[in-house]
Design goal:
Blueprint lengths: L4 H21 L9 E6 L2 E6 L10 E3 L9 H5 L9 E4 L6 H8 L4 E11 L12 E5 L5 H11 L7 H7 L11 E5 L2 E4 L15 E4 L9 E4 L12 E10 L1
Parallel strand pairs: 3-4
Antiparallel strand pairs: 1-2, 2-3, 4-11, 5-11, 6-7, 7-8, 9-10
Length: 241
């Protein structure tokens, strides 16, 4: 049965929460994150007890018309000096919810767009010198070193690497290491809302020692055949103050 746009929106909301949990667990910060997830009404409240100023780890998701009268109660869940970001999907952004947030100093600060790709078979540029290697226990530490290179040569403490490396080769969240010749690249894999992907998109980032990152995208014919077709963009607004 063909899914409706709102079905995708609900799935995105669920995946976003699960991804935030994973990102907190694999965060390369010296101080381990303490992410707390609480459900209140139709909202999911994300809060990092060790980093109340983080816009990403302190968010309210699922806020809608039914919650407009309870904004103050929701905000008391957070540090009084660091108001949380409120993520809102288009179906929940109404005059009522907007007024409730604007009255408390909120304004749009970011818009996120989610893309769904419909398969098609066609020609694609091939990069013959590209080598792909899945991240596992053997090379996870090297992969994390690459992450440091992409951040301008950041070096992570050995105990931090040891703490998080297992999260980079979980069976439900695979990472890949790419090289062209001797140059390391970074690959972001999008998995079509958690479904088995029928396409692969590469975001190639030159990892130079001076922190200069150059990106470009390409699609390669690495099994299965490439497919990148009709696109559905689902915007999500983030409101902050």
């Amino acid at each position: 049965m063909k899914m409706k746009v709102l079905d995708y929106v609900e799935r995105i909301e669920h995946i976003e929460v699960e991804l935030t949990k994973l990102n907190a667990a694999r965060s390369l910060t010296e101080r381990e994150r303490r992410l707390e997830v609480t459900v209140s009404g139709s909202c999911t409240l994300l809060r990092d007890l060790n980093d109340p100023a983080s816009m990403y780890y302190n968010r309210i998701k699922g806020f809608g018309p039914a919650d407009a009268a309870h904004v103050d109660r929701l905000l008391t869940h957070y540090d009084e000096n660091n108001a949380p970001v409120v993520d809102m999907t288009p179906d929940r952004l109404t005059a009522e919810t907007a007024s409730a947030l604007i009255e408390r100093g909120y304004q749009p600060v970011q818009r996120l767009a989610f893309m769904r790709a419909a398969p098609w078979i066609g020609e694609a540029d091939r990069e013959t010198s590209l080598r792909i290697e899945q991240v596992g226990e053997r090379n996870a530490e090297e992969f994390i070193r690459w992450i440091g290179l992409s951040k301008g040569g950041t070096e992570f403490s050995p105990h931090v690497v040891k703490r998080v490396e297992k999260y980079f080769y979980r069976p439900d969240f695979r990472n890949y290491m790419l090289t062209i010749g001797e140059s390391p690249l970074r690959w972001d894999l999008y998995s079509c809302m958690g479904q088995k992907p029928t396409w692969r998109t590469i975001i190639r980032s030159k990892l130079s020692g001076d922190g200069d990152v150059r990106r470009h995208c390409c699609v390669i014919d690495w099994p299965p055949p490439p497919s990148l077709g009709r696109r559905t963009y689902i915007p999500m607004w983030s409101l902050g103050r």
